[in-house]
Amino acid sequence: MCEANVYVMNKNVEELLLERVDTIIPKDREIYLENIFGERKTIEARIKELHLVDHKIILERFEKG
């Protein structure tokens, strides 16, 4: 198993965004995600933390302004 669950920070709480992600492609201010089921999402955020042993990726949205 090489996939990970992706969470996004929302008011200091991790919220599950997409499970079993196996493709992550950062481009400019966006991150494209695709999981093993073919589900796809694009989010305007940055990678905050990677916990590869725990199969967990945490994203953080850019602050407005």
UniProtKB/TrEMBL annotation:
One Pfam family from the record: CooT
Domain of life: Bacteria
Protein name: RNA-binding protein
Lineage: Bacteria, Bacillati, Bacillota, Negativicutes, Selenomonadales
